[in-house]
Amino acid sequence: MKLSLHFPCPTLHKINKKRLRQKESSGRSSKWQQLRQLPIIRYLKSLRWTPIPLSVGFALIAFQQYRHIRERESRKKGDDTRPILASDWEIQCYRMLPLKTLSRVWGWVNNIDLPVWARRPILSLYVRSFGCDLSEAVEEDLKQYRNLGEFFRRAIKTAVRPIDFGNCVVSPADGKVMHYGRVEKDHLEQVKGVTYSLQTFLGPNTWQTYNQIEKVSDDVYHKSLLHNPNNCLYHCIVYLAPGDYHRFHSPVNWEVQFRRHFSGELLSVRPSIARRIAGLFSLNERAVYVGKWHHGFFSLAAVGATNVGSIKVSFDKDLATNVKGWKKGTHHEHRFIRDSSGIHVKKGEFFGEFNLGSTVVLVFEAPSDFSFKLRTEQKIQVGQSLNHCMSESNDLPNCTIH
User: Fold this and answer.
1) Could you report the per-residue pLDDT of 17-55, keeping only the tens digit for each?
2) I want to staple 256 with a disulfide (CB 3.0 to 4.6 A). Which of 80, 89, 285, 291 is the partner?
């Protein structure tokens, strides 16, 4: 019987080890190449970020904290009458953040279809975090929503939002009343003590005159909106939080004649931010719809915000919000008048939807005795009356929420 002894060869061992490392490296490289082809990776690589120096960022955070402490101490002393506004440099730093890009990414994420097994745990987390009432939804089974966007834009049952069909203006959305009242001297209040310009917000009155391009005086602009010089202008701002119903509806029976889309910023419109930045709604992207109701001028503006991936309006298929490449500060117009008539929408009719919570601003003409029955920061729902009903009524037949 022969015995053979095998001694390890150091050279051969090193060769095998090297081949193993090369194989592992090749496998990792192959996986990385596959990962780089994913749509999300390709999209992120195409982004162009605007850098902010760290010193500026830390200074802004420190200053905001100081401002917050000062405001809190002011409230303790009972001196809560004057808001503390952000300075110009703070606003500029805020506007330098890539909020539009982040909002486009968020819109893309919202439309990613979730595996059936993941829908309930992911959407349940959102429901618990923001206090959504699933019992109001037409579809209560979370597994039936293919993605986050479908859940945000969910329809609700008709019975849970009855429409007040008296001669009144109703809330266009579920949310919180940020401010309301009569428009004075072409200025509106976004919160108490913080104003923005009506003319800047709506833009030039070309829907009536067709030729007003240059800015006019506040008084001239204000009067140009009124159909009846004895009437007044009123406004109401409704803020939609992330947990609210994300669709908005027509607040009256009216005729939509014109749309102006401003390609602005996508700053947050939370009440805490609205107290800091004067003219916030005039800075942000917004779609303003203008027309008339039986008391005269009427407008509804859907205002964009951070992480609002899109604003969609049922009858306006040409509207495209948060579009890459549009120059800030520009606007795009569209007329709906055909054969001397615009688009007629009924009170309570579905008007449009946000991809996440935002703000709806109403500006309208009404008699001088028009009276709101609201309070600031009141929670309100679609179809709920905003004012005490007026005597005469020209309302059209009832419609339902869809």
Assistant:
1) 566 666 555 555 555 565 555 555 555 555 554 555 555
2) 291
Report the distance separating Cα 169 and Cα 353, nearest Å.
19
Give the Cβ contact number of residue 304 at 10 Å: 29
Told to judge if 249 belongs to the known catalytic residues of this protein, a careful annotator would answer yes
Amino acid at 75: R
Query: Considering the entire predicted model, what is its pTM?
Result: 0.79
DSSP conformational letter for 5: -
The 3-state DSSP class for residue 362 equals strand
Please provide the DSSP assignment of 150-204 as one string.
HHHT--B-GGGS----SSS-B-SSSEEEEEEEE-BTTEEEEETTEEEEHHHHH--
**Could you give the CA distance from residue 225 to residue 364 in angstroms, rounded to a whole number?**
9
Q: Would you call 13 a catalytic residue per the annotation?
A: no
Active site residue: 171, 174, 282, 295, which one?
174
With tokens 């420190």, the residue in question is: 62
> What six digits make up the tokens of 144?
């039936």
CA–CA separation, 104 and 266 (whole Å): 11
- Number of CB atoms found within 10 A of residue 283's CB: 23
Q: Which of 249, 268, 295, 385 is catalytic?
A: 249
Spatial contact of 302 and 358, defined as CB atoms under 8 Å apart? yes
| Active-site residue (options: 103, 171, 282, 358) | 358
With 0-12 / 13-18 / 19 or more C-beta atoms within 10 angstroms meaning exposed / middle / buried, residue 17 is: exposed
| CA separation for the pair 209, 110 (Å, rounded) | 41
Q: Among 180, 123, 114, 103, which residue's Cα sits nearest to residue 355?
A: 103
